[in-house]
Amino acid sequence: MIVALDYVQLAAPPGSEERLRAYYAGVLGMTEIPKPPLLARRGGCWFRAGAVQLHLGAEEDFRAAKKAHPGLRVTGIDAYAARLAAHGALVTWDSALPGHKRFYSHDPVGNRLEFLEPL
């Protein structure tokens, strides 16, 4: 029986860790968490905000997914969108999900991210 979602893994090109740290920690406000030593050798980096974890793994033949994405629930979505825009991130609002306010953006390597807040 599944009881929870433990983390979401996204791919990134090798050598992009500093850009990912600047975005996920600096822009999104997540905290980097250490990878176990055996996994750290593979590259990438892991982040946490509360119970939410995003793992970014290095992938040699990286191509950002055009449709697949994590949905990240936020509070104060208007201020959060303004924060991303102030850091140069494109914010695309979408009103198609009933009962939610949401927007899409992309991390520095092209991964699509959805940010949503229940109304």
- Helix amount: 10-25%
For the termini, the CA-CA separation is: 30 Å
Residue windows where pLDDT falls under 50 for at least 5 positions: none
Largest sheet: 4 strands, mixed
Q: In terms of quaternary structure, what is this? A: single chain
- For the biggest β-sheet, the strand order reads 1-4-3-2
Organism: Streptomyces coeruleorubidus
InterPro entries: Glyas_Bleomycin-R_OHBP_Dase, Glyoxalase_6, VOC_core
Protein name: VOC family protein
Task: State the gist of this model.
With 119 residues, this protein is an alpha/beta fold.
Question: What does it look like?
Answer:
The chain is α/β, with parallel strands linked by helices. It is built from three helices and eight strands; from the N terminus they run E-H-E-H-E-E-E-H-E-E-E. The protein is globular. The model has no long low-confidence stretch (mean pLDDT 95).
